Amino acid sequence: GGSTLNKAKASFTFDPNTLYDFSVTYDGTLVTVSVNGTLLITMTPSTSLPTGIVAVESKFQTTMMDSFCSN
Question: Rounded distance, CA 43 to CA 56, Å?
Answer without folding.
Answer: 16
